[in-house]
Design goal:
Length: 138
């Protein structure tokens, strides 16, 4: 198996992010992006839930003033997931990545407290991440 060049890796990452954002933006309202009547108009609620692990989820209310802000957070989620995947720290574990206005939340379980801290460091190293809220357990 040959190794990908840096340029090929960057292109693959950008394609992954682009596809993730496009999928997110065209996704119909449903379990992953449901409007809640208790939330004021102009805001949306977002609930991520791993189908594999019911305990790994993020219940965050997002308030976006524009689709651009929403798309930016979706791109950051994809970039953090890619970074964590490339690093391997979360491999085999149910980890949810969420983002609200540049603040990334990591939730779920990893192998150890060292892995939880390392995952937060990986996430904070992604360009555009303002802060990491580490809710990982082990």
């Amino acid at each position: 198996m040959s190794r990908l060049s840096r340029e090929q890796t960057v292109i693959a990452t950008l394609l992954t992010i682009t596809l993730s954002v496009a999928t997110y933006l065209v996704m119909p309202a449903g379990p992953l992006d449901a409007q809640d009547s208790s939330v004021p108009p102009g805001t949306s609620t977002f609930q991520s839930r791993s189908q594999e692990e019911e305990h790994a989820h993020s219940d965050t209310i997002h308030r976006y003033s524009s689709e651009t802000a929403r798309a930016h957070d979706a791109m950051l989620i994809a970039a953090v997931k890619t970074a964590l995947s490339n690093d391997g720290v979360t491999r085999g574990h149910a980890v949810v990545v969420d983002c609200d206005h540049g603040t990334v939340t990591l939730a779920g379980a990893v192998a150890s407290s060292v892995d939880a801290r390392h995952a937060a460091q990986v996430a904070s190293g992604v360009d555009g991440v303002a802060r990491v809220n580490n809710k990982l357990t082990w």
